[in-house]
Write a structure and sequence with these properties.
The structure is a single chain. With about 260 residues, the protein is of the alpha/beta class. It has seven helices and nine strands; from the N terminus they run βαααβαβαβαβββββα. It has a nine-stranded mixed beta sheet with strand order 2-1-3-4-9-8-7-5-6. Helix 3 crosses helix 7. The termini are far apart.
Length: about 260
């Protein structure tokens, strides 16, 4: 795209205000840390803004969404407080081509569950375990620039299978945890014209979004999820007549295909 990618980072912005241990890690909010990382990685290639739950229309009014190419979504404590009309609005924009990056506990958000059509439930354990994220699709643009077969996070919340999602279009990362669990940590989907990336790391009590590899993946994902392709024709239409007349002079004589 010749013009900057218009990226909106949405965050509940609850934990950072209520819990000192979270505000110490993310003094500008999780959304602020992600915005700073994307600005550092992508520079003038992106036009960034943030939105939070407590803003009017949760900061995602129609004008904002219509001018958003990629939406990042971080939620955890207040999934039920997101208005259903906003969920429908975001869903329509994804169908129209807006990219969506669902982060960590956004697996349980209204918008992700609606787009997946499943419960999106999983197993978890808050034990501060080591996580190893294996790159299982090194050719994928979201893995661009990662120099090793895996990268590690020293302390994370465990997510374990079974992860109740539809079969992903692509699996880019699979996580292993010290407790032995594994998890599909980086998955892509397409809905309508929109591209969706679910990326697991990011529990609020650990400095996950300060990690250079995590920041690289997010920057890659923003570029991958950008709108692309042809026009989107998602509305049903009754085609009364053919779009153009058929020139019968180009029709091959069916008798030419008969067996001799």
């Amino acid at each position: 795209m010749s013009s900057p990618l218009r990226v909106t980072i949405w965050n509940e912005f609850i934990h950072e205000r209520l819990l000192p241990q979270v505000s110490a890690i993310y003094p500008q909010g999780i959304h602020g840390t992600i915005a700073a990382a994307l600005r550092q990685k992508l520079g003038d290639a992106v036009q960034l803004r943030t939105a939070t739950l407590d803003q009017p229309e949760h900061g995602l009014d129609a004008a904002t969404l219509d001018s958003t190419d990629v939406l990042l979504w971080w939620g955890h404590a207040a999934h039920d407080r997101v208005d259903d009309s906003l969920v429908e609005r975001v869903q329509r924009r994804v169908w129209q081509g807006m990219g969506l990056i669902a982060l960590h506990s956004a697996h349980n958000s209204k918008i992700f569950r609606r787009l997946m059509g499943t419960s999106c439930t999983l197993r978890w354990r808050e034990a501060g375990e080591r996580e190893r994220l294996w790159v299982v699709d090194p050719s994928h643009p979201i893995a661009d620039g990662l120099s090793e077969e895996y990268f590690e996070l020293r302390h994370t919340e465990m997510y374990g299978e079974f992860f109740d999602i539809p079969a992903p279009d692509e699996i880019i990362f699979i996580s292993w945890f010290e407790g032995g669990e594994v998890f599909r940590s980086g998955c892509t989907f397409r809905r309508g014209k929109g591209k969706i990336f679910y990326f697991r790391p990011g529990h609020e009590t650990f400095p996950i979004y300060h990690d250079a590899n995590v920041q690289r993946v997010l920057a890659n994902a923003v570029q991958w999820a950008a709108p692309s392709g042809s026009a989107y024709f998602g509305a049903g239409r009754n085609i009364v007549e053919p779009l153009s007349p058929i020139d019968s002079s180009h029709v091959v004589d069916p008798s030419l295909h008969k067996s001799k």
